[in-house]
Amino acid sequence: MMRPTELKRVREQLGLTQQQLADALRTTRVSVARYEAGMRRIPGMVNVALDQLVRSSEVPMAG
Predict the structure, then answer these.
(1) Would you give per-residue pLDDT tens digits along the chain (63 residues)?
(2) What CATH topology corresponds to 4-57?
(3) Which of 27, 46, 53, 62 is the most exposed place for a label (fewest CB within 10 A)?
């Protein structure tokens, strides 16, 4: 499971704003902000979608 800090790091490495990531995930910017702040559990579908974005961008998931 992805940690909030990992989500933010990957988003920033992809060069995406919270809104752009929210649009790609078909969710709201507020939800993305809450995932990154650790206020909400990051759903499995976010992990899958981010993995696809990372693979298409060749951005490493791990540190």
Answers:
(1) 889 999 999 999 999 999 999 999 999 999 999 999 999 999 999 989 888 888 888 655 555
(2) 434 Repressor (Amino-terminal Domain) (1.10.260)
(3) 62
